[in-house]
Design goal:
With about 130 residues, the chain is of the alpha+beta class. It has a domain of about 45 residues. It has five helices and six strands. The strands form three sheets. Strands 1-2 form a two-stranded antiparallel ribbon. The chain has a two-stranded parallel ribbon with strand order 3-6. It comes from Haptolina ericina. This is Magnesium chelatase.
Length: about 130
């Protein structure tokens, strides 16, 4: 494999018209699929020990057994951050309608959660 998924990050920079977008998408195509806990909204790796609080609560309650937890292989995520992104879309927010309907707090993950263990593509940063 040409890309080490444990590299921790790559920054591609350059002047306008230097194929940065093409390079980001090409790197994404080279990345191998990842194994996640089945149904995980946060692309959690069973072997890593980094559990989201919802999965951790199910483990403590005995609803999920770590030895028999189902996993699935999915393509490495590629998430593009739009220019006009709002905080709740980027970070996630409580889904008030579902929370009121079910009586349990329902968190809707944002773009950063979807990009976990994948490619987060940020174009046109204005600092």
């Amino acid at each position: 494999c040409a890309v080490n998924p444990k590299i921790g990050g790559v920054v591609i920079s350059g002047s306008r018209g230097t194929a940065k977008s093409v390079m980001a998408r090409a790197l994404h195509k080279l990345m191998p699929p990842i194994e996640i806990v089945k149904g995980s909204q946060f692309m959690i790796d069973k072997e890593s020990g980094e559990w989201d609080s919802f999965l951790e609560a199910d483990i403590r309650a005995g609803k999920i057994n770590l030895d028999t937890v189902d996993t699935e292989i999915v393509p490495t995520p590629f998430v593009q951050i739009p220019l006009d992104v709002l905080e709740d879309r980027l970070l996630g927010a409580v889904d008030v309608e579902k929370s009121v309907r079910t009586g349990v707090t329902v968190f809707e993950p944002g773009l950063l959660a979807r990009a976990h263990r994948g490619v987060l593509y940020v174009d046109d940063i204005n600092l």
